[in-house]
UniProtKB/TrEMBL annotation:
GO process terms (BP): DNA repair
Entry protein name: UvrABC system protein A
Family from the record: Belongs to the ABC transporter superfamily. UvrA family.
Domain (ABC transporter) ranges: 488-834
Any one Gene Ontology cellular component term annotated for this protein: cytoplasm
GO MF entries: ATP binding; ATP hydrolysis activity; DNA binding; nuclease activity; zinc ion binding
Keywords on record: ATP-binding, Cytoplasm, DNA damage, DNA excision, DNA repair, DNA-binding, Excision nuclease, Metal-binding, Nucleotide-binding, Repeat, Zinc, Zinc-finger
InterPro entries on file: ABC_transporter-like_ATP-bd (IPR003439), ABC_transporter-like_CS (IPR017871), P-loop_NTPase (IPR027417), UvrA_DNA-bd (IPR041552)
Length: 837
């Protein structure tokens, strides 16, 4: 460490000694409790391991230990952060980016508790129809039996099946499984045999059956029990019954609709529920018209709107309406008026904080799982600021993520609000605008994984200037210039028109091909709606592509999604013939189970397994490549099923993983581990870093080339077997990009990326830019929605969205080469872009 200014008053410092979590190299660091502290370093350098894995984890442990002796017993089983001591640590609140998106089912309104206040407002100060008695706050909640619409149970939508979803191909006969929704295997045959007993012709195409028969099979609620004689025709069955031949068994029939609805509502298996969901469609509830509440609640008005209508407006508009009401209520002196005034003022105060954080375009009803991680974090931040806690340490992960440079100022102000309230602040950031604002900077590095994990600097920002090993320094003190001299000329254009989706209204998109395009605009202007959603949906549909994103297999824990009937509208007008395929490269995990890892995702593990199976000793014992897989029972450890660890469930807390007591983390049976390839067993190979594996497989050109591509992507430090679930979003994205670069796909690919720089240090962004440039050099097209002006300045073409957020945005306000956007007075991005040109 270069400089460590001696703290004037150590009581005001948080002091960490001997931290060794993950890649941290026994580091010690002290940060002030009353300053804006920012932690920097390249992706994988160890910032999160220090900020969240050590400091926050320890604060959390101590806090829970102090509240209950019961919790203490649980914590004896919890991993303790590897650190010698932490002094001066206040209780902490973490606002961390979710790896792989939030799975929460709550809405903006419930997360911020704004919905509670609104319900109170309608209950106490709403205008009721004459003769109706006052309702309780709960009567305005669709989550309570008192408030929910009785028809849709508060869902706002009705989920049901149609003949088309149950029987996707009506040219098939029942024997050919026309009723796709029926259970597979034996149960399906049973249902067919019951129909044979009942005299239904199961060998003619579905469409040729009489309508009454088709309807009965699909929709009947009767569950008749019939004798079943498998393998016989209807005539033979009748004959058998006549002669008193006993049936093989009695089978009970269930209509296809009943079967699907029952499975969706009641099955214990997530896979079964997901399968049932795939045969359902949803439509707006005809009774509440999607407003989710019972009729009475919807009759109560405030400012001329019912609660569903008011809640459906963007936060900005709700604020404006409440401000207007507040002016009038101020003059009232009766009890109702006073109560209303109090609630309205409380609402305005909370809303204002969210508007300042650039979230005014959100709606209360918006599902939390549809928010970007940055929006979600700012929402929680905005709620915290109002909670009036003090003496708390806030640990934040990249709060600027998803923010346009012109919104970042407001964020900084909000963060200062936390400090001014007597709290401490530790912010992990990559955004130079935020870093330059730091009163105290901790730089971790210099590189990722084992080549990082040191504290390079801790002190006031200026002191970083003299730290030669810092990767952050050059970007903060403008020692690195960027900018592409001459933007590439597009070869062709892809034209889309009449795009309608979220806030996009009849947008026309002209996208240059064979170049790199960056889509910019303030938060909520519609970048993701246009790029990540509409473009992807419209083009992949036009290309007849089912799944633009290569997704890992669905896991048993997934919540089944019912196909929403709504999807982006729009047509490709011209240029489609130039494109072979569309590929989305996102930051979603590369696998959802600890069994997936970078080796399995890239396909390199298949080749490694073959190399092991080719070892003479393996051949002698007839061990094929399957023996070296931890997804197949043959060779993996039966106790942990190839995971290497066992999940320990803790009450009320996230479960933790302990090493498998049988294989001690090796994942395989002893006979598999006995097979040696150049002196290493398969578990050794999984423990290698990409750098080591590259060297180890030097004699196998295909494998070595694969690992080399990963090294080029800056992933040389990752261990092959590191579970996919512990990789950061940035790491997952780079693995996907490296896999793409390695494939050398034939034909023109349209690559789409949504905010790919999230979680990336400027040095990582430069590396990413080089990789994207490489894709363009191979002849492909790259389109990304971005806030990073450094990256935008290096693009060939830009589309700037706006002018505002939500309903005030959704248009392409400027398009052209970066130099032209920088000069365009209509663009709010221009001024920020200029600095980088
Ligand atoms: P940063 O926050 O700077 O991007 P991290 O602290 O997340 O870096 O990671 C530092 C190193 O520790 C990386 O090599 C990363 O792959 C590794 N790492 C992070 N989380 C885990 C984990 N749960 N298990 C094993 N290694 C991990
Ligand atoms: P940006 O990417 O520029 O931040 P978005 O495309 O995410 O903007 O959002 C544009 C508008 O569309 C906003 O008003 C936003 O609230 C709305 N929106 C985006 N995604 C959804 C969604 N899944 N459901 C409802 N509204 C959405
Ligand atoms: Zn309803
Ligand atoms: Zn095991």
């Amino acid at each position: 460490m270069k400089t460590q200014p001696s703290a004037s008053n150590p009581a005001d410092m948080i002091c960490v000694r001997g931290a060794r979590e993950h890649n941290l190299k026994n580091v010690s660091v002290s940060v002030p409790r009353d300053k804006f502290v920012v932690m920097t370093g390249v992706s994988g350098s160890g910032k999160s391991s220090l900020a969240f894995g050590t400091i926050y984890a320890e604060a959390q442990r101590r806090y829970l230990e102090s509240v209950s002796p019961y919790a203490r017993r649980l914590f004896n089983q919890m991993p303790v952060p590897v650190v010698d001591a932490i002094e001066g640590l206040p209780p902490a609140v973490a606002l961390q980016q979710q790896r792989g998106g939030s799975s929460s089912r709550s809405s903006v309104g419930s997360l911020t508790t704004l919905s509670n206040l609104l319900r109170m407002l309608y209950s106490r100060a709403g205008t009721y129809p004459a003769g109706m008695s006052r309702l309780e706050a709960e009567d305005f909640s669709s989550n309570t039996p008192m408030g929910a619409c009785p028809r849709c149970h508060g869902l706002g939508r009705i989920y049901d099946v149609t003949e088309k979803t149950l029987v996707p191909d009506d040219t098939l006969s029942i024997r050919q499984r026309a009723v796709a929704a029926w259970p597979t295997a034996w149960q399906g045959q049973n249902l067919r045999d019951i129909l044979i007993t009942r005299g239904v012709n199961v060998d003619i195409p579905w469409k040729d059956l009489p309508k009454a028969t088709r309807d009965w099979i699909l929709y009947t609620k009767e569950t008749p029990t019939e004798p079943v004689y498998p393998g016989r025709t209807h005539e033979q069955v009748l004959e058998a019954i006549k002669h008193g031949v006993p049936a093989d068994y009695n089978g009970t029939f269930t209509g296809a609709r009943q079967y699907v609805l029952n499975t969706f509502a009641k099955s214990q298996s997530a896979k079964m529920r997901a399968r049932a969901a795939s045969f359902m469609v949803s439509s707006v509830c005809p009774e509440c018209h999607g407003q989710k509440l019972k009729a009475e609640a919807l009759q109560v008005m405030f400012a001329g709107r019912n609660i569903a209508e008011l809640s459906a407006l963007p936060l900005k508009n709700i604020t404006a309406i409440l401000q207007e009401q507040s002016q009038q209520l101020k003059k009232q002196t009766d009890a109702t008026g006073l109560a209303a005034y109090g609630i309205v003022e409380a609402l305005i105060e909370r809303l204002q904080t969210l508007l300042e954080l650039g979230l005014g375009y959100l709606q209360l009803s918006r599902g939390v799982q549809t928010l970007s991680p940055g929006e979600y974090q700012r929402l929680r931040l905005g709620t915290q600021i109002r909670s009036n806690l003090f003496g708390v340490l806030y640990v934040l992960d990249e709060p600027s993520s998803g923010l346009h440079p012109c919104d970042t100022q407001a964020l900084l102000k909000a963060l200062h609000g936390l400090l001014d309230g007597g709290n401490s602040l530790l912010v992990v950031e990559h955004n130079c605008q935020v870093i330059r604002h730091a009163e105290w900077l901790v730089d971790v590095g210099p590189d990722a994984g084992e080549k990082g994990g040191e504290i390079l600097y801790s002190g006031p920002l200026d002191g970083l200037k003299s730290v030669s090993r810092s990767r952050t320094r050059p970007y903060i003190f403008d020692e690195i210039t960027c900018g592409q001299a001459v933007p590439l000329k597009p070869k062709e254009w892809l034209c889309l028109k009449n795009i309608n989706w979220n806030n996009l209204r009849n947008v026309t998109l002209d996208l240059p091909l064979g170049v790199m395009t960056v889509v910019t605009g303030i938060s909520g202007s519609g970048k993701s709606s246009l790029t990540g959603q509409a473009l992807v949906s419209i083009v992949s549909k036009a290309l007849g592509q089912k799944e633009p994103v290569e997704q890992p297999d669905a896991d048993d824990n997934d919540i089944p999604e019912v196909a929403e009937s709504a999807e982006p509208e729009g047509q490709v007008v011209s240029g489609l013939q130039n494109i072979r395929r569309l590929v989305v490269v996102d930051q979603k995990p590369i696998g959802r189970t600890p069994r997936s890892n970078l080796a399995t995702y890239t396909g390199l593990f298949d080749q490694i397994r073959q190399a092991f199976a080719a070892v003479p000793q393996a051949k002698k014992q007839k061990m094929d490549a399957g023996w070296f897989s931890f997804n197949v029972a043959k060779g993996r450890c039966p106790r942990c099923e190839g995971v290497g660890s066992i999940e320990v469930e803790l009450l009320f807390l996230p479960s933790v993983y302990a090493p498998c007591p049988e294989c001690h983390g090796a994942r395989y049976k002893p006979e598999v581990l006995a097979i040696m390839l150049n002196g290493r067993d398969i578990a050794d190979v999984l423990n290698m870093s990409v750098d080591e594996a590259h060297e180890f497989f030097a004699d196998s050109p295909n494998i070595a080339h694969g690992f080399d591509t990963l090294r080029q992507g800056g992933l040389g430090y990752l261990r092959l077997g590191q579970p996919a679930t512990t990789l950061s979003g940035g790491e997952a994205q780079r693995i996907k990009l490296a896999t793409e670069l390695q494939k050398k796909r034939a034909g023109h690919i349209l690559y789409v990326l949504d905010e790919p720089t999230t979680g990336l240090h400027p040095a990582d962004v430069d590396r990413l830019t080089r990789q994207l440039r490489q894709l363009v050099a191979q002849g492909h097209t790259v389109v990304l929605a971005e806030h990073d002006m450094r990256l935008a300045a290096q693009s060939d073409w830009m589309l700037d969205m706006g002018p505002g957020a939500g309903d005030e945005g959704g248009q392409i306000v400027a398009s052209g080469i970066p130099a032209d956007i920088a000069k365009n007075p209509a663009s709010r991005t221009g001024p920020f872009l200029r600095e980088y040109l």
